[in-house]
Write a structure and sequence with these properties.
About 20% of the residues have low confidence. It is flat and about 40 Å long. It is α+β, with helices and mostly antiparallel strands. Strand 1, helix 3 and strand 2 form a beta-alpha-beta unit. Helices cover about 45% and strands about 15% of the residues. Strands 1-2 form a two-stranded parallel ribbon.
Length: about 70
């Protein structure tokens, strides 16, 4: 599941990137389910702190959701 999250995370919209007037190099949206499995819940929480910062630093857009019906 971690690989899936990482893979999806390499493909979302960070308002700060758009506010600077620069289009992001690429967009990332991470779909996740964080229920019951404490390791997975922890991973999701860590990833959702790390990816937005990394996106800003490297010029890509990041979004995450647990709404699996959200269009890509």
């Amino acid at each position: 599941m971690r690989r899936l999250f990482g893979l999806l995370a390499m493909m979302a919209v960070v308002p700060d990137v758009r506010a600077q007037g620069k289009a992001p190099a690429f967009k990332v949206i991470a779909f996740y389910t964080a229920r019951e499995d404490l390791a997975h819940i922890s991973f999701v929480n860590e990833a959702n702190r790390w990816f937005p910062k990394t996106a800003l630093e490297h010029g890509f857009a990041y979004d995450s959701t647990n709404d699996w019906t959200k269009p890509v």
